[in-house]
Design goal:
Layout (H helix, E strand, L loop, with lengths): L5 E3 L11 E3 L7 H22 L1 H9 L5 H21 L8 H8 L11 H5 L1
Antiparallel strand pairs: 1-2
Helix pairs in contact: 1-3, 2-3
């Protein structure tokens, strides 16, 4: 099932912060919206690197040390660097206090169980 949560202002431009906005917010507010849009942008920038991972594994299994392996790894590196650059933009709009009070509670289901509850 495909879940579209954003729209592009300009369909000719990339899916990236500044060209996307949410269709529906949970609570509203720029902190919540920016947090989600940053992650949409990160996922888009992950795509080129993800697309070559199987080829990277194949190159590793065949001990390919040539230009093709280096090109594949360069694609992954560029993808990761782009993702990181986008992630560093989070504080532009998401303030720590708002994140912990408004955004993080929705992610609490992903928390690791405490050691005491894991033993129960």
């Amino acid at each position: 099932m495909l879940c579209i949560i954003y729209f592009r202002f300009d369909m000719k431009r990339e899916i990236e912060c500044g060209n996307i906005a949410l269709i529906q917010n949970f609570l509203g507010g720029i902190d919540e919206e920016w947090f989600i849009l940053i992650h949409v942008d990160i996922e888009r920038k992950a795509a080129p690197g993800m697309a070559v991972l199987h080829a990277c594994l194949d190159a590793a299994e065949t001990a390919d040390r040539g230009a093709s392996r280096n090109a594949l790894l360069a694609t992954v590196q560029t993808s990761v660097e782009s993702m990181y650059a986008t992630l560093k933009r989070m504080p532009e709009t998401v303030r720590s206090l708002h994140y912990y009070q408004r955004v993080r509670p929705y992610n609490s289901w992903m928390e690791e169980p405490s050691r005491s509850s894991a033993r129960a």
